[in-house]
Give the backbone structure.
Amino acid sequence: MMSQKKILQCSAGALLLLLPWFGGLVLGEISNDFSQCLDFFYKKTPPQGITAAGHQPICQRYKNQYRFASLYRRQHRSPLYSAYILSPADGKRPDSTWMFEPQLGFSRAAAEMQCFQSTVDQNVIESQAVFEDYRNSNFTKGHLNPSMHQKTKEDREATFTLTNIVPQRAGSNSGMWNGLEKEVLRKFKAFCNGSMHVITGAMPYESEPRWINHRVSAPEYMWSAYCCPSYKSNLPKDVKPSFPTYAAVGRNDRNSGEEIVPVDVKARAAVRGYDVRRMSLEALEGILEQRLAMPITLFHGQCQ
Ligand SMILES: *[C@@H]1O[C@H](CO)[C@@H](O)[C@H](O)[C@H]1NC(C)=O
Ligand SMILES: *[C@@H]1O[C@H](CO)[C@@H](O)[C@H](O)[C@H]1NC(C)=O
């Protein structure tokens, strides 16, 4: 249940957000090419090779600032990836107040993500995932850009838009995928000497999509890669291969085959089958190319 206070915060926010619209000054969140939010990509270059059809760039805007970027797949009602700059959280995970992207429903709607109100417009429901889709789905809401990789309270709150979320099994979300997110954070703190650009995404099933609520497609795998071009000298030997780039693929279906990510049969039951395999950027790009049938370059010049 939302507290009264939170509802008030939400409504006040929504009112403010309408003002620029009445002034005729629409700063689109929905973008043709991420031009408003290129800073979130290494060398201002979004991943190359992904065909435009059905993919909607979103510059994720919250409280009057761009916070990160997502590529949304309209037919799947879920993102293909979110791209962000990692900055360790300076506080706790916020209470989750879930938001949506008004402009997916109406191109002239307010330019910022908004909280769900008690009634949700039909155009919004048709254009994207809503809270109801996840209820009783046996999937958790998996952040691509996780809130604890974002410094300020507002940046963390902004990750709670469903356009940054994919259906993720609990055994992955609170198990080994969570371990990967923590490892990346640790590596940033200990060894990255400058900006770390991260792109985290969903890998669809090879043949048919799997849907929750017949509407939102669940990924077979999660994937993630970072680029930290400026890192500390004298890296320990075991850390050297993690710089300047690092990547991983995580299982989101314990029944998947083991050709991409093998299973550790000795893992504890709650997380068994949700393994994460660390790999090079090149290896991840090879897997993505096969799966998405597109040659993909995640970071300009391989982050060199
Ligand atoms: C969720 O899991 C339970 C227990 O395994 C199962 O009975 C139920 O059908 C599942 N629900 C959906 C929507 O798949
Ligand atoms: C980090 O970068 C700064 C400036 O680019 C440089 O002066 C410093 O030596 C670097 N630190 C390490 C530990 O490599």
